[in-house]
Amino acid sequence: MNAISSAAIADFESRYPAVFNPPIWKRFMPLMIGGGIIFYMLYCWWFFSIGTVLASGQWQRAELYARDWVSYAIRTTIRMSPTAMTVSYPRFSELGDNPKPDWMVQAGNNVTVLFGSGKSLDINDQRVIATRGDESLTVLIEADGAKPQGTMPKWATLKEDQVTVDFGFAGQADIIPERVVVSRRFLGWANFVFDTSSPFWNRSFGEVASLIISGERIKPEMSNAALAFNNIWYNSSWQHGDVWTKLMQTIVMAFIGTLLASLVAFPLAFIAARNIMPNFFANQVTKRFFDFLRSVDMLIWALFFTRAFGPGPLAGISAIFFTDTGTLGKVYSETLENIDDKQREGVKSVGASPMNVQRYGVVPQVLPVFASQALYFWESNTRSATIIGAVGAGGIGLKLWEAMRTNTNWHNVAYMVVLILAVIFIFDSISNALRSRLMGKQQH
Amino acid sequence: MSRAISTELSLDGIQIERHWQELAGRRRAYSWLISICLLATVAGSLWFANESNAGKFFDRLPHFFDFAGDLIPRDGWEVWRALFDLPSPYFDGSLKYDYPEGRVYLFGGFYVPEYFYKMLETLNIAILSTLVGFIFGFLLCFLAARNLVKNRLIRWVVRRYMEILRAFPEIVIAGFFAAILSLGPIPAMFAVGIHTIGALGKLFFEVVENADMKADEGLRAVGANWFERVGFGIVPQVMPNFMSYALLRLEINVRASTIIGAVGGGGIGEELRLSIGRGHQAKTLAIVLLLLATIIAVDQFSAWLRRRLVGNQAFAFGGKLS
Question: pTM of the prediction?
Fold first, then answer.
């Protein structure tokens, strides 16, 4: 490879002055854009006081909340006494009315709590021994507080008269004079199918199946299958019935809203397209009407209709219908303005009526495109419907938002998110499949 | 509905005609079947929606017009007073007419009207989250493009990651961060921004995959490393398209941040929800007017800039992407 001589370089420079010596503003353009972006970010940092908010955020909670998505904790209190140790569970515990978990071993006046993989608590009325792997900590219980003996391992903390022992994901225990409060965490969703008040609770799948198929009636007024369905539908902690009804509302909102919007936008688009309706005034009125519907945001429509119809899917349907009549109308009229005129001319030349010119000269060209666009919006509206639901326009949005605001029901949030993601995934696939059949593989 | 087959046709002709009629008949039957199914679904869905709504459609319809009538302010100037925080002659100590209360004083007697300030907040949420989404989407997209990264695992991981960011409902991200940071504009920013990373990242890597690889080949021939190839071969070609998509996303994000605002993210959305809920006509109209003007302005600006950047091709789907 030859190096370029300086004469050749000079020659290049003189031939392409714009490349080698651009004007100053062009040379510093990237720097100015970068500086502008940094300046804007600093301004936002100040405007929203992002630093203060991020610093005062309770980030340790993030991990706890994230953990609650896929696991549940059981809290128990062990009261110490020289004669009889008592283990008590809260009312409405996940373990039912009479819990006998196998991780809680009671022998004489000694209680052992097993946290799995070498972690345990050994409790009697004078001391608690916490073991984690090869380390262990003995805490003596005295009248004025819990007294840890020897050096404290990293996983234990002393705060005034109370010792907290951390076993990681498996749980933790607070050792307080006279009692130990244990929180034991398990992976999974507790009582997902039947809640503790159900007669089917805590039975294996086989048992439930055999009860439903051939068992004696548990409640005389209904069959076991109906009872089982009832118990699942009205599960008190998961509320399957309510969640599924609300999910159905969201789906219906997106479906009906988009369908009605495309049905109304279809004829209006013919009026708005300037090559089909030669009347300038009619074109402009329809187009500005579309712009108005589109620009008054879906949120504004949702709030209006929630106020007018009361909270529920009707408000959501109307909001999606109004916004998307505008958007689809705009898209449709643009498609119509770009059609091939030859087909229309052909139909016109054989003396067809104006209606028939549209029917046979225009509609066959645009129908697949229209349908494909409507499907695209249907898919996108399934997402939007979740969000506008949160302002009261029906569907699962509000339930999701309320579950999050309680800060304790993150497992319900996870359940609803999984359902929403599944619905979005299914509709995405349906809409993609239909669209590629309508338009051919390349075009969508 | 088979028509009589003309006797003038030859034997072959008759057969073809019969086949055609059979086909047409089958198609007609399918069309009918699909129409009936669709109609039944629509009727069922409408019934279900009406049944599970708090108010029934026909019961509420007259009230709807009442409500629309309620929105008419007491006089034409009231809307402007609400918009610019001027004192109202109807002020009676209630929240309905306390327009000057919301003034945000910058210095001396100079103030920004409340709704303009809130609108600015919403706009800033949208712009900042678009910017953050653009930066991260830009950094990620090259790793997901087939023509730049040969390692399948990296591509798969990056693509799935972006898919998760995109598919996760914005409202859940907002709620999660609201639980940590308390309600306000920052959780809204997280929600909109995270969604934007996924959405833009996907569009970006598709653009990169369609890029002309000749420039890249040239750079490879002179021994450029991966970063130089991307920086000098790919980025200059794709940047106009990237900018165009980012502007499109900005339009969407202005709307999204208004909506997230209404559920507790602050900004103009929250003001609108409160004002409609309390029945303050003039305030509601002022906010709607301001929102309408802002959205139209942002849309027009973005459309103008996109036309300059990439010509008309960016207008294929009317600007709705998710």
Answer: 0.84
